[in-house]
Amino acid sequence: MPPVLETRDLTIRFGGHVAVDGVSCAFHAGTLTAIVGPNGAGKTTYFNLMSGQLAATSGQTLLDGDDISALGAAGRAQRGIGRAFQITNLFPNLTVGENVRLAAQARGRAKASLLSLWSSHRDWIAKADHYLEEVNLSGVRDTLAAALPHGDKRKLEVAIMMALEPQVFMFDEPTAGMSVDEVPVILDLIRKLKADGTKTILLVEHKMDVVRSLADRIVVLHNGRLVADGEPAEVIASPVVQEAYLGQAPKAVEATHG
Length: 258
Ligand SMILES: Nc1ncnc2c1ncn2[C@@H]1O[C@H](COP(=O)(O)OP(=O)(O)O)[C@@H](O)[C@H]1O
Ligand SMILES: [Mg+2]
Known about the structure:
six-stranded mixed sheet, alpha/beta, ABC_AA/LPS_Transport, Rossmann fold, four-stranded antiparallel sheet, ATP-binding, ATP hydrolysis activity, ABC transporter ATP-binding protein
């Protein structure tokens, strides 16, 4: 099967600094790939390049075999690249429910004919309700997004991405800043997406236990370069990962020493 998403020699320079350096990698439908590496390795920048938030200095991004390198973020979102942001990206003065409904509506518009738009208003609300329930936010449907605590904002971002019904789901440290009891909600959701078997899921995550339990494959970035790529157990045990994580996640390193 051809990959859904692929990068070829993807590179971006910020002045003299090469943040993503010739990364070639392909992602397939029905798989969850964890992208790991120390802080500053280029993980978020790699996501920004694939989702079109940043334009590459050189190299290509392909979606379903088409070169989408010239497309911006909106065009790529339209083509099915979904991104839950590390930095909050909501309509703060709209309610939680409205934020998700707008996403469902945007998705509906992309798919629907003009005639069907009228009849689908109810569907958008139903869809928004469905995704709110999935992230456990039904109870705050009528709260302004701006008033949500941090963890709920992160959950709302995930609901918005789901309502856009993308082909590719990109999660950049989705549980960062969440309280312990909120984390399983997001992880269960990602697990459910994965169980669907048709989505292409990319996950940047620091917690190695989470990576181990969710990933089919681990890609390691270090200094902007792809330095390891393979089965989780194999990659976690590799010297390059232990080196990359020294001082970063000593527990993960110790664990692989047995
Ligand atoms: N817009 C930017 N301008 C200049 N440097 C940047 C920019 N975005 C990221 N960087 C640099 O690129 C490197 C990779 O950053 P990032 O992708 O955020 O790493 P990670 O997500 O792996 O922690 C860092 O050195 C960071 O300072
Ligand atoms: Mg990052």
